[in-house]
Every structure is written in C-alpha cells, then in structure tokens.
Amino acid sequence: MFKILVIGETCDDIFIYGEVSRLNPEAPVPIIRPKYKQTNKGMAENVAKNLESLGVSVDLVCNNETIKKIRYVDDSYNYILLRIDEEEVINKIDLSNLPDGDYNVVVIGDYNKGFLTPEDIQQICKKYNCPIFLDTKKDLGEWVKCVDYIKINNSEYQRNKEIIDTKLISKTIITRGKEGCDFDGKNYPTQRVEVKDVVGAGDTFLAGLVFKYIETNSIEKSIEFANLCSTQVVQKRGVGIVDKFSLHGKK
Q1: pTM exceeds 0.90 for this model
Q2: How far apart are CA 151 and CA 135, in angstroms?
Q3: What structural domains and CATH numbers belong to the chain?
Q4: Which of 73, 104, 140, 219 has a CA positioned 20 to 30 A from the CA of residue 130?
C-alpha cells in the first residue's frame, strides 16, 4: 500500500443549515432559524481523509489548537449567509517530532495560520527523499524551489504571477474552478456539472493529484484525475469526500 505523509493545519468546517423566511426588521439582513448542523474536518486533514478514501495509508502531522470555520447556510438554496472564523493562536510545528519512515510522497498543506514557516518547509524537503507537493497561501519566493509541485488557485496565481511565470511555471498547477486548471502553459478542462458546494474542493483536487501521481508518475494524468475528483465533490453539500468506487475505470 502507498504511504503518504500530510503536514499542515487542520480545522473544523461547521455548517449550520436553517430556514430563512424573512428579513430582520432592525437591519436589511436575513433571519435564519437553525435546523441542523454538519461538521467535517477541513484543510490538511481533509486532504488526508480524501487520500484515505482513495485507498492509501496516511500519517498526519497537524496543529493541536482549534480552528473553526462556521457557516450559516440557507437550507433551501444552499446559500452561505455568514461565515465566522474562530482561531486560537497556532503554535509553530516542532520539526523534531516529524516521523521517520519511507513515504511515497509528502504533502504540505500550508494555510498560513502560523504552523509552518518557509524555513520549516525547506527543512521538511531536506528530511524526506521523495516527491514534495505543496499547497500554500503564502506569497511565493525562492524558498519554494525545494518542492516538486505547487498547487494554488487562480487568485493566488495572480498575486504571485511574476515569480511563477519567470521561475516556477514548470512546477505550478493553477486551479481555475469550472475552467479546470493550468499547468506549464496548457489548460486541462473539467466537466461542467451543477455545483452545490466548493468548500474543500481544492483539498480533494490535491489528494487526487497526489494519489494518481504515485500510481503513474505522470503529472498530466494526475491533473486529469484530480479534476475528476474535485468535480465529484462539488456536486455534494458541505465538505465532500471523494468516492473512489464511482471513479473506477476513469483516467
């Protein structure tokens, strides 16, 4: 069985679904009557859970502090009315506690909450002799040259366009939602589907990308499979986990 190490911040993604039938007379905002709550693990732990669903063994190194992303959702239209982020101060990773072992891939999910510094990421690259995949919210710099592949979204690309186009284009995968993703000057389109929720879709994309890369050693085939995985989960409410059985025989 393939073995993957995932390092990064984790959070609780909390969805409170309710009924909205009128506006607040005191202010032009909707009044929501909560009906039920759904909680999922998010960020790096969502990457890990998607990898496990695809059938690989995963070790997870993450923060112990609590991060909560609470979304109030109109149950009728699946429309997010409000998001509240509750974050404790996140302690930096203790690199001395990183596990030893032979991993097929190391995945770094850096959501820029304080758990990982650029220097930490460089040290992780030095420690493990395997491909390193990075998803980061930090501004990119020379420090990312140690990783093999970087996964970012389009807004993050626009923020880092100059360095990516001049130095990192051959290792940067740019997700563009319904427009698929770009890699090394080529667009990889995705199937158009009815989108119910995009929360966590980037994590699922990263998990599918890494899983297929271990199988094929082809980043192009991995991107195509990752597109399929993220397309599947955006058709579900909340934070979806990819179902490998429904993907059987695809790409």
Answers
A1: yes
A2: 5
A3: 5-20+27-240 (3.40.1190.20)
A4: 140
